[in-house]
């Protein structure tokens, strides 16, 4: 017989080094808590500046029941507002991209400026004060062109520390002068934490990602040489030497490259520039650049891939010729949206400077494979025989860091969630 347990008790008894108990992946009660305590209180990566280059360009993103309009105003500043009309609450813009002069509500045409002020509302009478009915602002922050929003009244202030640390790493790739060459939404049939856990390890890569050149991540994801057989140890040691040597070379060129691990911060993150299959240029099938126009101030092609991972919902790879960014948005306890964007130099011409298939095929294939893995993990977590299993100390250290961060962030919200059922 299943027994009823409080979510507080599940948080308190979480066994470090092990996957989470089933309700964390399956229950509506934990999902609601996640949307409140994690997605409602932290900096959530949602979009890139090149999606809104001109005044009036908007991108609308749903985060649980919230919907946020991120736009470029007349002064070229990025602003964000709750997508809720101050009349009777209708959505002003549909999900995705749009371009507006003003924000006009489709319902009764209340009209808001790009600064959120209510400019016009017909038939409201003389007493009606438009100045009290502006759109509700949402905190938004551009970190080198990556757009993060925070739904909390008081957002975590350590986004400043994240920005100060990461901006010098990503600035040379000049994301603001890129364009989105392709965007892909994939709905994974699993809890958002399974999507994130899967991203934080490459234990599964050898067996599942033929397109993702395996040496790309295998050792960069924390394999410890002690855990490998002789043959693989030689590879790992060679990779370590390559990593040290490449890092020195890149740093010598003025490209910050060495690892920063701040995954335990409230706005947790990690970064590192990693070699791509020896002297490979980019995350493509043949490891050569997919776009001929090199980004920003970069002067050569073989610069590896600068990876940037954030808690709770994103990761990004910056190469010499393109950038790939991933945003994870929970839809329900067992459905998650993975939004992937590929960016190239804004002047790169499709078919001339880059081929869309060559640009997107590795991560499209890899995402689909990861989506299938998330789905089988979800199905397993939902079955009566599931119990938390041990993470590999050699390859799943970052999965543990994700779960430890998550549990720590939830523990600030005792007594909020409804009890859940667990197998006795
Ligand atoms: O993109 C990443 O960072 C991870 C590592 C390898 C597979 N993956 C989804
Ligand atoms: Fe927006 Fe009426 S609900 S104008
Ligand atoms: Fe994967």
Can I get a quick summary?
By secondary structure, the protein is α+β, with helices and mostly antiparallel strands.
CATH class categorisation of the largest domain: Alpha Beta
Spans of at least 5 consecutive residues whose pLDDT stays below 50 are: none
Please, what is the CATH homologous superfamily of the largest domain? Answer: Naphthalene 1,2-dioxygenase Alpha Subunit, Chain A, domain 1
Ligand set: 1-methyl-L-proline, FE2/S2 (inorganic) cluster, fe (iii) ion
What spatial order of strands do you see in the largest sheet? 12-18-17-16-15-14-13
What best-fitting shape do the alpha-carbon axes yield? globular
**Biggest β-sheet, characterized?**
7 strands, antiparallel
Any idea how many domains? 2
Task: State the secondary-structure class.
Answer: alpha+beta
How many helices in DSSP terms?
9
Pfam family, one: Rieske
Cofactor: Fe cation
Protein name: Aromatic ring-hydroxylating dioxygenase subunit alpha
Keywords: 2Fe-2S, Dioxygenase, Iron, Iron-sulfur, Metal-binding, Oxidoreductase
């Amino acid at each position: 017989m299943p027994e009823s347990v409080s979510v507080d008790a599940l948080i308190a008894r979480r066994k470090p080094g092990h996957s989470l108990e089933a309700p964390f992946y399956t229950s509506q009660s934990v999902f609601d808590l996640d949307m409140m305590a994690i997605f409602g209180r932290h900096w959530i990566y949602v979009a890139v500046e090149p999606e809104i280059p001109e005044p009036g360009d908007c991108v609308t993103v749903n985060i649980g029941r919230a919907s946020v309009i991120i736009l470029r105003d007349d002064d070229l500043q990025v602003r964000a507002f709750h997508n809720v009309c101050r009349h009777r609450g209708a959505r002003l813009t549909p999900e995705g991209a749009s371009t507006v002069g003003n924000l006009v509500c489709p319902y009764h045409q209340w009209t808001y400026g790009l600064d959120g002020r209510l400019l016009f509302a017909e038939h409201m009478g003389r007493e009606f004060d438009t100045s009290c009915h502006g759109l509700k602002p949402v905190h938004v922050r551009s970190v080198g062109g990556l757009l993060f929003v925070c739904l909390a009244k008081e957002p975590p202030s350590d986004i400043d520390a994240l920005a100060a640390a990461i901006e010098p790493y990503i600035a040379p790739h000049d994301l603001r002068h890129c364009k989105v060459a392709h965007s892909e939404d994939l709905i994974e049939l699993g809890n958002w934490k399974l999507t994130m856990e899967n991203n934080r390890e490459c234990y599964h890569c050898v067996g599942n990602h033929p397109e993702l050149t395996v040496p790309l991540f295998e050792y960069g994801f924390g394999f410890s040489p002690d855990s490998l057989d002789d043959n693989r140890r030689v590879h790992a040691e060679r990779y370590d030497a390559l990593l040290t040597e490449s890092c020195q070379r890149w740093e010598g060129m003025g490209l910050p490259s060495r690892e920063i691990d701040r995954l335990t911060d409230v706005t947790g993150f990690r970064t590192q520039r990693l070699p791509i299959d020896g002297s490979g240029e980019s995350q493509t099938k043949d490891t050569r650049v997919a776009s001929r126009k090199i980004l920003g101030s970069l002067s050569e092609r073989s610069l590896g891939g600068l990876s940037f991972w954030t808690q709770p919902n994103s990761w990004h790879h910056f190469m010499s010729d393109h950038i790939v960014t991933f945003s994870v948005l929970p839809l329900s306890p067992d459905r998650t949206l993975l939004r992937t964007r590929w960016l190239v130099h804004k002047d790169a011409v499709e078919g001339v400077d880059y081929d869309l298939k060559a640009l997107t095929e590795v991560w499209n294939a890899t995402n689909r494979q990861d989506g299938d893995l998330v789905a089988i993990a979800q199905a397993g977590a939902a079955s009566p025989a599931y119990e938390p299993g041990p993470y590999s100390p050699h390859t799943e250290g970052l999965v543990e860091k994700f779960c430890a961060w998550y549990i720590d962030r939830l523990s600030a919200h005792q007594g909020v969630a409804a009890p859940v059922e667990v197998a006795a």
